[in-house]
């Protein structure tokens, strides 16, 4: 599926920060445009004060890179830009370079639906320095948001304990792009359907929905409205019962449910969208059971999130299906993931890779130098630890020490003998050509469930989750430490 083509019908090369283009021009001007480099995209903290993150957005990245090209209108716009003295910002020869440029990078990434953790690369880009640089902003834009929403959806679905979660967020989402991306990421994270019909069409997500309060209010009575809706949709009647009085609304739903049964049809259920959901759902359940509708479902909505759902579960609310909107698609309690994109290696004139490190007074902001990969060790289907190591290093079975990237006092020894291992970065592009076959969204969702199932419930709890061990292989940690001291000494000279 060509996502960008379907949504935008044109080039997205200018979907970037202006400083990416000024750097690209400066690379070209200084003769560095074609030098080879490696960049890593990663984040520094799990969102929502949680214990894990769920990767999403790779399909958008693939589509963006496949269609990465500066078209005539892009170049005309760039040629119109002026410096403060009135001279052109970009030389014509540079614009000609962009016109002829074809995407030629290698790209590796974790698959969508993979559980990931701070500091491990979600995407590794290797290729001409100028091209790698131009990918920074769009890749961050795509992956920051979809990964954040997929994680939120996974948390909400976990709180629902196997109940269906419906995504209702279109009207509250951050614009058209945010709504579509959120619907997609939510489904990957665990929701069972969306109210967003365009997302259903573009991505193949099941769509769901019945009626709103306006439907009820357009009739002279609630009962009349329910009867009319049952005539229109006898196979899928879920009645919204809280427009006027919730208890009376349940009574009216039961009455129409009996009329449906006389015609050989069954009422699917009711929806409660306001008030004390625990109280009203319990009363509604008792009323429907007594009336002979034990299989009718109760859908709840009303600014739900994982914490409210957990509370309602503790209260033993009689809710079967959860409709979640605003707090899911806007990632209400954390508006951004905070992923970054950092240079980690460049190839020198002798053709050798030189690792690069960014030094900071904050240890959390010191990147991991070199070209690396992440391996996940597991046993009997349960994840044990993740190790970030220099790509190309032979991983023989034996004992390894992993060191926390931020706190070197946190170390863990892993005896990898008899452990299963999975290399998390998969090849996606080689020399600008796609070599990865994207699974459909339903397989991605299954992959997410499989991945989440590898981790203990202690890692998934919402308050003070247990920290899953992720660390640098000892020689990589030593390399980073050596480079940090070297750069500090160099800058002091």
UniProtKB/TrEMBL annotation:
Organism (species): Shivajiella indica
Top-level division of the source organism's lineage: Bacteria
Coiled coil: none
Record family assignment: Belongs to the NAPRTase family.
Catalytic activity: 5-phospho-alpha-D-ribose 1-diphosphate + nicotinate + ATP + H2O = nicotinate beta-D-ribonucleotide + ADP + phosphate + diphosphate
Post-translational modification: Transiently phosphorylated on a His residue during the reaction cycle. Phosphorylation strongly increases the affinity for substrates and increases the rate of nicotinate D-ribonucleotide production. Dephosphorylation regenerates the low-affinity form of the enzyme, leading to product release.
Protein name as annotated: Nicotinate phosphoribosyltransferase
Domain Nicotinate/nicotinamide phosphoribosyltransferase, residue spans: 167-348
EC number in record: 6.3.4.21
Statement: the UniProt record of this protein carries the keyword Phosphoprotein: yes
GO molecular function, a single term: nicotinate phosphoribosyltransferase activity
Pfam families for the chain: NAPRTase, NAPRTase_C, NAPRTase_N
């Amino acid at each position: 599926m060509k996502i960008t083509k379907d949504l935008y019908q044109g080039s997205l090369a200018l979907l970037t920060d202006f400083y990416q283009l000024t750097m690209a021009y400066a690379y070209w001007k200084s003769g560095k445009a074609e030098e080879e480099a490696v960049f890593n995209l990663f984040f520094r903290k799990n969102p929502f004060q949680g214990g894990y993150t769920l990767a999403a957005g790779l399909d958008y990245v693939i589509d963006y890179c496949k269609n990465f090209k500066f078209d005539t209108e892009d170049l005309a716009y760039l040629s119109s830009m002026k410096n403060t003295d009135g001279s052109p910002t970009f030389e014509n020869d540079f614009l000609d370079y962009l016109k002829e440029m074809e995407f030629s990078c290698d790209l590796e990434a974790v698959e969508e639906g993979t559980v990931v953790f701070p500091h491990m690369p979600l995407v590794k880009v290797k290729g001409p320095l100028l091209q790698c640089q131009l990918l920074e902003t769009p890749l961050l834009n795509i992956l920051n948001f979809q990964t954040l929403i997929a994680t939120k959806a996974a948390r909400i679905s976990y709180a629902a304990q196997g109940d269906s979660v419906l995504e209702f967020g279109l009207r509250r989402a951050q614009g058209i792009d945010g709504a579509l991306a959120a619907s997609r990421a939510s489904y990957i994270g665990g929701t069972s359907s969306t109210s967003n019909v365009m997302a259903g069409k573009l991505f193949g997500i099941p769509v769901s929905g019945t009626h709103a309060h306006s439907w009820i209010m357009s009739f002279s009575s609630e009962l009349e409205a329910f009867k009319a809706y049952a005539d229109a949709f006898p196979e899928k009647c879920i009645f919204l019962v809280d427009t006027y009085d919730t208890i009376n609304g349940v009574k009216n739903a039961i009455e129409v449910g009996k009329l449906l049964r006389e015609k050989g049809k069954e009422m699917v259920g009711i929806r409660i969208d306001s008030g004390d959901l625990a109280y009203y759902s319990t009363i509604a359940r008792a009323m429907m059971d007594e009336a002979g509708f034990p299989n009718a479902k109760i859908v709840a909505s009303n600014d739900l999130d994982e914490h409210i759902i957990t509370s309602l579960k503790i209260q033993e609310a009689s809710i079967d299906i959860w409709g979640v909107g605003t707090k899911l698609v806007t990632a209400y309690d954390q508006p951004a993931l905070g992923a970054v994109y950092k240079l980690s290696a460049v190839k020198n004139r002798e053709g050798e890779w030189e690792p690069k490190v960014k030094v900071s007074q904050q240890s959390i902001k010191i990147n991991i130098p070199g070209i690396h990969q992440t391996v996940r060790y597991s046993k009997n289907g349960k994840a044990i630890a993740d190790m970030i190591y220099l790509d190309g290093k032979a991983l023989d079975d034996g004992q390894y020490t992993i060191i926390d990237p931020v706190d070197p006092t946190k170390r863990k020894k892993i005896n990898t003998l008899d452990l299963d291992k999975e290399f998390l970065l998969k090849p996606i592009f080689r020399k600008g050509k796609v070599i990865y076959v994207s699974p459909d969204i339903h397989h991605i969702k299954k992959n997410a469930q499989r991945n989440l199932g590898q981790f203990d419930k202690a890692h998934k709890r919402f308050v003070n989750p247990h920290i899953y061990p992720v660390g640098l292989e000892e020689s990589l940690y030593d390399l980073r430490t050596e480079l940090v001291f070297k750069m500090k000494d160099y800058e002091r000279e």
